[in-house]
Amino acid sequence: MMALDQALDPRDLLLSPEDAAELLGVTVGYLAKLRHAGGGPEYCKLSARLTRYRRSALEAWIAARTRTSTSQSPPPDR
Hints:
Layout: E1 14-15, H1 17-24, H2 28-37, E2 44-47, E3 50-54, H3 55-64
Antiparallel strand pairs: 1-3, 2-3
């Protein structure tokens, strides 16, 4: 049994595609397209029909796309 001081970091909690899409402000379909094409946030494939996203992966994906100027290069696709 895990002690309270060893609780999971909230950033590592797994989110459903619906919750991830809401957090990112995109549609579930867009996330599915990114999974297929590549270049989207990292995700966990727990079974053939169960996909989840770590909040920390979503935050990292957002941070990698943060710009301060329109002259900055776009993020590389994976």
